[in-house]
Structures are given as structure tokens and as C-alpha cells.
Amino acid sequence: MSAKKLKPTTLEHALMLYEQGFNIFPIGSPFVPMPEFWKKKVEKEGRERVMVDWCKTPLEPWKVTTSNPLKENQIEFLFGHKYPGCNIGINTHGLVYVDADNVHSEKWCDENISQGIKIITTKGAHYPFINRTGNDYRNKVNVDSGLDIRANGGYVVSHGSTHGRGAKYHWEQGFGIQFDTIEDLPEMTNSVWDKIKSYTQGTVEITQDEAKGNLQFDASKVKPIGSALSLVPAIDGGRNDKVAETTGALLNAGASLQEINMILKNFNCHFDPPLSIEELERTISSVVRTRMQKDGKIPDVYTKELTEKETWKPTETKSDFPEWIFAELPSNMQDMMDFINKNSVKKQPLLSFASILPLFGTILGQKIQLERYRTRTNIYTLGIARSGAGKNAALTNIKNAMREGNIDRICVEGFSSDAGFLRRVNEKPSSLCLIDELGKVLSSILDSRAPKYLKAIESELLTLYGSANTTYNPKHLANSESDIQLNDPNISVYGVTTPTALFKTFSSETIEGGLLSRLLLFDTDDEVPMSEVPENAPVPESFKDWASEWEHRPLNDNPVDLENGVLKIKPSEIRYDVQALEFYSTETRRIEKFAGTLSDGLDAIFIRAPENASKIALIIAGCRSTPDSVSVLTIADLRIGFAVSEYCANLMYQKATTNIADNDLERDTKKVLGMIRKSANGLTLRDMKRKSFFKKLSKRDFETIIENLNHAEEIELRNTNTTGKGRPRNAFIALA
């Protein structure tokens, strides 16, 4: 199909809006060529970032339409001839558009002010009202609530337009309103307005007079900033520079992130045209991050509670998984966990959670990324459980759910060679590896004596982990006739193993080498759960509907957007809000500080923790999103991400320090010491002879282990019969 056939026309939609009584004007879109000035911005800032702004920029003086609305012949000329394919702006004079910028504010609007009609946007929704009272409502911005107002003196991007990242703005009508003309819009009443004012306490209102001059600070809302700031509104290319300059000045004056965000959102309304909220917050975040890297601290009322702990330390005992996380997950993730648990003979909720992370990450693969660092959703998780503890239930149910949901994304269920693995990756570049007994597989792959075709699998897994946002040319297949090139491969892994099989892979080299440090390790909640009759529950509709939407989301809506002759993969971007960025940086510094105190090898476990946290948070944000409405990454998402990552890092650290060994004798010595420590009354020679592990040891190795532990003062032989009666009980006791 040609690009010409796919190119949308907005003339018909513009004429329909005109007939309905909307005051419209043309704005930029992905289908309208940029002028030279914007092309230079693309070279400097990147096409994807600039495109978001371009698709909200008026192509004609939009303020003129306040008093002189476009006539039908002008609309036909502008939308049909001068700017074919352009987006549509609506002058909001005489209207009130309530703009919900996040899921929380959208939920509030649905429950409190919605009257049956709204426009779905990329971050939330618009709720349009008509103003029949004559009240002079003005543009308002609010940092805390995520609720903005566009009214007299403002404009919005209309339904029917295309966002810079390809999503469509569209009506979502309920049964309460039959919408034919602008007069059918719900009326902005005093009671609705009072609800909005109550919800957005602290709102900064922009009046016509203020828009003409410099911003006047409200001393009741902000700290004293000083008179050194020059807040003269900028135009065109000077807007980003002005925001960056002002952010730096406010930081120097000791303003918090809350104050900076509020002030600059207010100030942004003075620009002609204003920066998009996305671009504004991106610029603020860039300056804040640079300052944090330099000074290590930014005052913020939102994050005082997060900086009370001076260091980030692993727990000394087995990590307890923070189960509050389950209640905070998006509903489709909760439903999938319930589905797995209900269909399991032996329920292991934590392994269910470990399995759904890479499942959802696979479906989102190549479709979304974090704006910062271009993080993707590929993730490696591993569940450990004893034989017979129910560790395979999640594997089986994940495969059943993917089959019933027509999700053909299973890459491999075992590794036999690097070439075979890469051929499967080439066939399914966004897919999930489901591996039973992964510990045994890792033992074969990580063995220094392993054949080259097995040993190379470790290298491929490491490379694929870091290549999800770039191009990868596998060296083993580079000389093939098909000239294989993997573009943005998104390979996730979920495996299960017994503890013994996993611990055999632990050595200084394998921990430091990287693959084990990338695994998110999960332990069973219950080592020996009771068997139950499975419920044979169906695959959740919430999961199938969500997965179907993302499965049908194309990798790029633009068929002529090619890179080296291949259609460019263009994921939707999920951005940090300012507070989430601060939280991420604070937690990362804490973890890195602790990792710096560890010996080589073990530090690798913690160095990866922030990256894994951001991947988990990205998956969660993606689960809340649809292709047409992509969420913002919030502190709530990152709290879950870091809590899970901390649990996994703690667990890997504990298992590694207890079981890491560079040879069999060292590994057996740690095993013996662990068994003695677990015995409350110590182990006698007779006790040891009864245990199968000791039967496998040669007499020489057993004597060497006991001698080494004695010399190291780890154990001692002691009479544990303290009753004073009977024969002595000489047992080996672990020393503190």
C-alpha cells in the first residue's frame, strides 16, 4: 500500500467541526513538512522529541480566530490545499476544556465531572464544556493534581488529530449525551467549577493582563527567589533555553521541584505558542538531572522521606518479598497472577509474579521505551524452588495463556546452540524464552569446559540484553547469505530451577561476568505447599484485550520511515515525571554507594539493580497503557520497581555469599558449613553419615573440609549433652 493512500486527510473532519460550531485553525502534524527552522531543531534535539511539539504548533496566527473565526472557504483552502494532512486546533474561547494529564486525574474526572463525553489523548483525556454563564474562565495549570484548564485565551488539539508519536485523539462518548453540535456539550456550571477548584488547590491562574508582562510570583505559594531572575517571555527557539536558564536560577535560589514545576508551567503560558507540557518537563528534568550529577542533591518536598536512610543495604537474612506490591499492580497483571494461581496444584504466588513480568515485557517489546536512557522491557527472571514445590505451574499456564490469546511469541524452551538460538531470535525478534531447569542449562553454558556452541550462548544473552534499543549483527551469522540483522531485539527470559542446580553455577567469575547479575532471582513463598485441586480458570479477558491491542499496534505507523532500507522501529515513549526522576536518581545513588563497598564480583549484583528497577516500572506503566493512551512513569511505578529489584538483589547477594565457590571443594565446604549452621544442636559424625550429601564425599575430601573449617574457626567439636546424664554427645557446632 502506498504512503499516499495511507496519508490521512483532515479536511472532511475540519468541515464537520466547523459545521458543529467549533472555532478551528490548522496546526502541525506528522504529515505536514516542517519549515527550515524546525528541521534545524530536529538536527539538534532529535526528530521524535521535536515532532511532539510540531504536532501542537499553530500554522497560522491562531489568536486571530478569537474574533475572526475561519470561514468555510478558508477552511477548505487551508486544510485541503495549503496544509493537507495537518492537525486541527480548537480555539477554546467560550469553551472550557478540562485536561486530565494522568490516570489519577482522569479517574477523578470520570467520577466527579464527566457528563458522558470526553476526548482520549496520549496521556489522559479532555473533558469539553460550553460556557454559557459569561464567566471569564482562563487557562490554569496545576502541578499536584495533573489537571489543567484550557479556556479563554487558549487552544487544544482537536479529536481527529495525530499525536507526534502516532497516536490518534478521538471521541469517547457515553450514553448520556447525543453529540451533534457544540451546543450539545455539557455546560460548565458553578457547581462543576467549584469541584474543579477544590481538586486543584494551589492552581495558578493566567489572566490576560499577566500574559502581557513578566510573571508576578505569589509569595504565599513559593519561597523567596530573589530579584536576580529575569523572566522575560521568549518566543520560538528561545523557549527551551529560557526554561533551562530559569530552572537553573530557581535551583540556585533554593526552590524545590514542586515550586519550580509550578512556576514554569505558569510561565510557559506566556510563550507564543507555549511549549507542550511534555517538552517543558523534559527540559526541566534535563537541568535537574545535570545538577544532581554535579551536586548530588536537590531540595524537594516530595522526597524528604526517601532520603532518611543514609545507605542502601541488603538484609542479612532471607529477603521477605514486599507483598503490598501485589495490590498496587495494574488490574490486568493482578488478573494474570490469579489465573496462574487458580490453575496450580501447588500455589506459588511469587513465582507467578516472576513469570508475568517477562510475559508482559514481551508483548510490550519494541512498542514502548522510556524517554530517558531508551530503556526497553526485555527482562530476565528466575524462580527457584525445590523439586515438587510447584515451580513449573507458571511455565505451563503462561504457555496456555499465550496460545489462547494468539500470542505467537515463544522463542525457545531450551538452549542447544548459539546458532540455533539466534535463528529463532531472527524469526521472532520480540519473544519470550521459557526454560525449565534453567540452573542446569546455566551450569552447562557457564562451564569453562563447555563446547564453544554452548559457551557462546552466554555471550548472546548478554549482548541481546543490552541491544534492545539498537541494531545487533550476530557474529556467528554475519557471513550468511541472508545477511541477518536484528533490529531492536526484545528477548525476555523466564526460567525455573532447583536451588542446588543454581548454586553450582556460582563462582567469582560467573557472578562478575554479568549474566547471573542480570537475573532477577525469586524464591518460593512456601517450600512445601499443600496440593489443591486446580480451578481450571479461563484466561482473563482483561489480559487478552490488552494484549490484542498491543499486538496490533504497528512498529511504525509511517510506511515510508525507513532506516537502511528497512522500516524503522518507532516505539511510543513513556516519560518520567519530575518527581519520579528525582526518586530514581536518589535510589540509584544509594545503591551505587553500597555497591562501591563490595568486593569485585558481588558489586555487579547491585550495579544492575537500578536498571532492572526502571525496566519493571516501565512494564507496569505499559500495562496501564493502551497504544492510543500511553501513561507517564510515576513515583508509584518506581517504588514497585525498586522494591522488587531490591528484593531480587538481596536474594542473589545472600545466595552468592553463601554458595559462591571457585572449585568443587570450596563449594562442598560451604555446603557442610551451611548444614551445621542449620542444625540447632550441631551434627555428630553419626548424623553426617546418615545424610546423602556426606555419602557422596570421599573420605579425603570430608577430612579436608572438617580440618579447614576447624582451622578457620568456623566450627568446633563440642559436647552438646548439657543434661549431665548419659553419654556425651560430641557434635560439630558452628561458631558465631
Provide structural commentary.
The chain is of the alpha+beta class and 736 residues long. Helix content is 44%, strand content 12%. A five-stranded antiparallel sheet has the order 7-3-5-4-9. The protein has a four-stranded parallel sheet with strand order 13-16-12-17, with helices on both faces. A hairpin with a 4-residue loop joins strand 4 (117-120) and strand 5. The protein is elongated, with a radius of gyration of 30 Å.
Q: How would the global form be characterised?
A: elongated
The residue-averaged pLDDT reads 79
CATH class of the largest domain: Alpha Beta
Strand tally: 22
Range of strand content: 5-15%
The CATH topology of the largest domain is given as: Rossmann fold
Q: Just name the CATH architecture of the largest domain.
A: 3-Layer(aba) Sandwich
Low-pLDDT segments: 1-7, 202-233, 297-312, 314-318
Kindly summarize this structure in a few lines.
The protein is of the alpha+beta class and 736 residues long. It contains 30 helices and 22 strands.
